Records
---
Amino acid sequence: MRDIGHEFLAQSLSKVIPLRPFLPELIVKGVQYRASDQVQLDIPTLSISGRGISVILGPNGAGKSLMIRLMHGLISPDAGQVTYDDLTVSGKGRARQAMVFQKPVLLRRSVSANLKFALKFGSTPKSELESKTNALLELSGLVGKKNQAARSLSGGEEQCLALACALARSPKMLFLDEPTSSLDPNATHRIEAILHHASVLGVRIVMVSHSMAQAERLADEVLFIAGGKLRDRAKSQDFFNGPTSVEAHTFLSGRLVP
Amino acid sequence: MTGFGDSLQLAMGLILSGDESLWAIVFLSLKVSLTAVAIAGLIGMPFGAFLAVARFPGRGILIVMVNALMGLPPVVVGLSVYLMLSASGPFGVLQLLYTPSAMIIAQVLLVLPIVAALSRQVVEELYGEYREHFLSLGVAGVRTIPTLLWEGRFGLMTALLAGVGRAIAEVGAVMIVGGNINHVTRVMTTTIALETSKGDLGMALALGVVLIVLAISINAAMSFAARSSARYAYA
């Protein structure tokens, strides 16, 4: 992590994200999600609290994306409920969270107009709009392209902008759905660096990833999902040294023996 | 009966000499049709967007109806507006019949379904793209309409264009509610119909040429503007 200028990143970020001593708790209770009469996801109980980066790993179709969409209240479970800071995520709880999608969602406007749109939804006072926009431009490395149409950016730049837009609302919890799945190493590096610093400042990060290497670099803990169930939850180091569940073991050894 | 060549010569003469009555007719046509499209746009674009994002019982039927109304026969619209505005009709007291206002009302009714139906298509497509993102921001349903209309501005331009094309070329409705009164409600299409039956092919053809040139150039200019700005915004 050399050429990005970590101090600079952290500095820009601190203009948007306050240092938070503690963070609310996300509680998943008895959640089931069915589609066409099949249980796609079944999480009896799960709690995510405090600082850190949780990476959700698992094979395709395990229910990883479903899980973060449920935790962000974008879809409602058929049974059980998800609360954040004691508020349901399908209601007010979601306001303290943000999400970055796998394919960056950007408005058909300029880069800085996208950031301002997000800042306004984060109820940023007018007097801070310019300074925060500039901080986010620095953060995403797009200062020189602030007047460019957002959708004309490269894939990596688009995702950096989408991440900056999500952070513009100063969320306490940030979900990411495979944010770097189609990015080159440089862009991936920048995204990971931003996530690292955001987590230090006090944004709880929950991300879905397909890259074991990324999980090893970033994760404080790993949540392993297979067949719609949470099979394993462990500190990153412990998980990669020897997962307790059979499924995770098979998954990890599958990586070594193709 | 004069030949096509002679009529065309006569027509070009009228156009090039800046014939006053001809240009008055052209101007009135533009005034009526563009006003009608502006009003239809102000109502039809938000309404189309509402149909795209709102969920309520009967929405499907309403969408089918709006789509079907795109094919409203102008004469029937003219007749209905005539009945509403005639002295014995419910709005007879307004004394709007045989005025440009009546023609605008009729054309609004003709253009509204087109603008609404096309706007719904444009906005619904965008809504699919942005729905979860807006939900994540805490905005859902009807409250997304202003943003979606702005995001769909280039597509909506095309919807308005279709409306202009329909309004300016339509003859049945304005003939009935306008009455084709000289210097008052005579527009390009009604004049062409009248002059042709009178045998004054020069005037008819002159207006025909202007109508075609106008229709083509309004469309070309607006779609060029929409395209180049769309390219700029990568819409």
---
Amino acid sequence: MLKYTVRRIFQMIPVFIGVTLILFILRAPGVLPGDPVRMITGERAIPDALREQIVKKHALDQPLHRQYVIYIGNLLQGDLGESYQRGRPVLDIFADKFPNTLRLAFAGIIVEIIIGLTAGIISAVRQYSFLDVLVTLSTSILVSVPVFWLGMLFQIFFGIKLKEWTGGAVHLPISQMSSAEFPDWAHLILPAITLASVSTAYVARIMRSQMLEAMGQDYIRTALAKGLTRRAVTFRHGLKNALIPVVTFVGIDFGVMMGGAILTETVFSWPGVGREIFLAVGQRDWPIVMGGVIIIVFLVMIINLIVDLSYALLDPRIRYGGDAE
Amino acid sequence: MTDHREERPNPRSGVPTDVGGHETRDEATTLPVLPGDLHAVTGLSSRTLWGDAWRRLRRNKLAIIGLIWIVAVVLMTVSADLWVAPLFGDPLTVDTTPGASLQSPSLEHPFGTDKLGRDVFARVVYGARVSLTVGVLAVSISLAIGLMLGALSGYYGRFVDTLVMRSADVFFAFPYILFAIALIAVLGPSYRNVFIAIGILGWPSIARVFRSSILSVKENEYVDAARAMGASDFRIMFRHIMPNAIAPIIVYGTMSIGGAIITEAALSFLGMGVQPPTPSWGLMLSDAKSLMFRAPWLTIWPGFAILTTVLAFVLMGDGLRDALDVKMKE
């Protein structure tokens, strides 16, 4: 187990180097349009001394490979540099945004697990029933829905139309702006459902197919033959064995939600990490983009590792030996 | 691979067909065979793989609905100059007459008009051109890169395999939409760069799917046979392995077109894609955002167009997977 963990951590290194290299190539002079100093100072003319100071501070006078080494060196010491435009350390900026993203992601994962698992289990237990067809069809539709459109529809329907129809009695908050009208958690409802929509469909699909496979196994027949109730067999024998791929998916998805929530965050004006990076791309504030992506990639790798290691806890048949793949 | 087919009379000649007929037949008429061997399933060796696949596909109602919708969208948008423009108005012409903008849906403007007085129905129909072109071109680029690298990786293994698969890992490690945005920031937001960026980002999945497909196909005895007969790597690859490994790619490629359409819409929605005044569904939704509550029809129809078109490709992909008997992980 320890050997496996160490090897996995070593495997992360080349991927991590690849990611940082690509980010560096993308911002290389001549690749990315615009003069970085201009990005920092704006269009107004500046004295040469100040210009030099800025160039020094961000190591812009160094050749690219030197800049890379400096950047990685700082990174290893926990320094992600300073934003061009906001004059703040990148780490501080994301420290502000991460709680928002985490809250949204957690809420999304909860929606995904509750709705996705339930739909998948019902669908599998009642295979070919009306409910099964309904679940299967809605998952196909859900994976085809653009999330930002879904968010907009939710806002129109739950924010405005519902209010009109019920005479102002029932509606939901449509952005993160806090108000006296709603408790804090209520602001999470619509963004969380929007963010989780596509993943919920995938969870339901994976759950259904895994559950069907598990329920076809010999030990299920044995358990039924022993006289256990259907319910006990379904949950204790079927569900337990069908869960691993779902756990994998949810784990990976949690990582995806860290950075991939830009669309949901844009539609709901949610000040999260993805939106921050997106805005920084527009402003050519490259330290924020690089820092943000690196943080996300790092988190995703850690989450994936935890997910893989958790298999051994979930399934006693899986043991990571020295030579297992 | 052992051949599961039984010896059975050939309906035309009355002579038993040779067992394992494919391998001994003339090269030019060799049929591609899937690992599942569809001929064994149907019991009719005179049928072709594609004929069988089509027969199965035809029985899948949802896939056929998807196919019909795709064909309908293509026909509508290709012929749009003939009927949409004269009937509902040009998608680009701004109408400044008072009261022309933000009209709610009517007979004259079935989907209403936008804030510049342009007919939304016309813009939705013309918008299909952008979506479909970007979808097909992006996936073509992904296929070109992905198939090549996947083939190299699967066929040669070892160092090439490690290099290609590690690069794929790097691409997978990036948050997808952020990577697309960063690429567009470098390339500059435009119609052409959108499909280039989506195409570049799509190769790792194609390469992975094709690689694993090749890995399983290349274990077949007919590949060893071809090698023993002195066939070149190139010939083995293109004549013996490719035709048998391509089915998962067809399924994946079809679904990817849907994915590329959504990504194009998302990028255009964020202002990092197709630029105005080109009618694009994502761009229309971006314009609709500030008018969401005043003019909901601006939001509803472009999104509906994206949903139905993407859904059509997803249903087609599902149908093809069943028809071609491809086993894929979710």
